[in-house]
Amino acid sequence: MAHSRFHDLNLSNATLIITDIVILSGIYFFASYYLSGIYSSAPPAFDLRTFAHLFCFTLPIQLTLLAVGLYNEKLRENFRGITLRITVAIVLAYLLTFTLTLLIPYLTLPGWTKPILYLFALLVLVTARYIAITNNYEQLGRRRVILLGHGNRAQLINTSMRRKADRVHFDLVGYIDIPGDLAIEETNLPRITLTQPLEDYVRQENIDEIVIAVDERRGTLPTDSLFKCKIQHILITDVIDFIERETGQIAVNHITPSFVIYNGHPSKNKLKAFLSWLFNSLIAMIILFVSWPLIIAAFIAIKIEDGLFSPVLYSQQRVGLQGRLFSIYKFRSMRVDAERNGAQMAAKVDARITRVGAVLRKYRIDELPQLFNVLRGDMCFVGPRPERPQFSDQFAQDIPFYAHRNDVKPGLTGWAQLKYPYGDGLEDAIEKLKFDLYYIKHRSLRLDLLILIRTSEIVLFGKGR
Fold first, then answer.
1. What is the pLDDT of residues 229-288, one digit of tens each?
2. Residue 188 is part of which domain span?
3. Which residues form the Bacterial sugar transferase domain (predicted)?
4. 90 plus 236 within the same structural domain
5. Residue 317 belongs to a domain
6. 396 Cβ partners below 8 Å, 6+ apart?
7. How far is it, in rounded angstroms, from Cα 50 to Cα 283?
8. For the chain, what is the total number of helices (H) and then of strands (E)?
9. pLDDT tens by residue, 167-206
């Protein structure tokens, strides 16, 4: 049984993805074979062009389903909301495919086929998702887990994964007391009293994973039994690694300086840096080409609300790679005199935000001018959000390893923006740092693409900041 997973990918949503691919492929071949017979006596030819059409049909739908959050393991939506998201995904995929066929006419489907294909896709995907929900698909691959220890480190699971949705992949069977653990308040987690060797208990109770959460390891761990469990292919995980895997965050208060030594070093490879800039610049140009009507609309709306001579853009100093300062650009979403009393962090409910600004911020239109920062090389599309120097200095003094987030370029969006709601204080900065450090440790092109696609959900549904 595989226990590692690619960030949010696990057996339950991997099953959804594979099922959707099979469904979409079946719909396509049904349309190609049966519907073509209605309009032509010749059977369809299953050649290279057929499979190119299949790819052009299935891939955009898969991407848009991901983009609207339908493969998000912690999506909290009723069936009506899920139906709406599937509908939005199908519409977006239709538009994406239409644009693609304009660029590559070879991929154009017969006019009568396309609307039927997408209508079938909508109906069958909604039905399949209803069946999956009613059969508790999220329970697939659920693991039985026990804790070794019941002290402060074991409590990290309660503090990091309070909600039921946070524990969707495992069933915490209970804990085993280990000598030397610090006393804590009792929890509802059952205590396991061993009357037999640990390896026998694990085998009889079908335990899949043992999480090491002891406060004092020296001379307290049952190493012989753990070795025998390992031989039985039982996964043995440190509690910090367990939390990182299950939540997508780093437990900041429990990591050591070795984390900084072994993770997140900035690359000095000039070719890699150039290719990264080129990749980000190409995306910036594409988004600029698509979003220019929104840019013009934002310009006009700000002028109408605040007057012909009101400023449309504003810039602020932000902290970038290796602590270097740069000017970030945004559409102005607050009153002109918003900081007459000095710098202050924006709040979720902020009286300084204008009516137009509220709309711009909700759908992130205010951040479109930052495409210029990407083109200039100050920022990437994905990375920790850049902070103002005043607040960055304060957080660096109060939060361990906060400055480590400056080891990579800041981004327009990031892992923290996907995983954590809007926050404007020290505690929120600590929580977001946990996700930023996770991104720094695991950053890759695949993770960047995942974050970019899933950011679409935030933009489309006006979530987060």
1. 999 999 999 998 898 888 888 887 777 766 666 665 666 778 888 888 999 999 899 889
2. 142-247
3. 278-460
4. no
5. yes
6. 402, 403
7. 29
8. 17, 8
9. 878 899 999 988 877 766 556 778 898 889 999 999 999 9
Kindly indicate the confidence band of residue 426, based on its pLDDT and cuts at 50, 70 and 90: confident
Pair 69, 463: CB distance under 8 Å: no
**92 with 64: CB under 8 angstroms?**
yes
DSSP 3-state of 331: strand
Q: Is residue 465 domain-resident?
A: no
Same domain, 300 and 428: yes
Give the CA dihedral 99, 445, 168, 123, nearest 10 degrees.
10
Nearest to 328 by CA among 436, 411, 437, 422: 411
- Whether residue 161 sits in one domain with residue 107: no
Flag whether 262 is in a domain.
no
Determine whether 296 is exposed, middle or buried from the number of CB atoms within 10 Å of its CB (0-12, 13-18, 19+). exposed
End of a domain among 247, 278, 310?
247
Give Cα 110 to chain centroid, integer Å: 36
Query: Exposed, middle or buried by CB within 10 Å (0-12, 13-18, 19+), for 419?
Result: buried
Same domain, 132 and 149: no
Q: How many independent structural domains does the chain possess?
A: 3
Q: Is the whole-model pTM more than 0.70?
A: yes
Q: Which amino acid is at 290?
A: V
Residue among 49, 52, 61, 51 at smallest CA distance from 16:
61
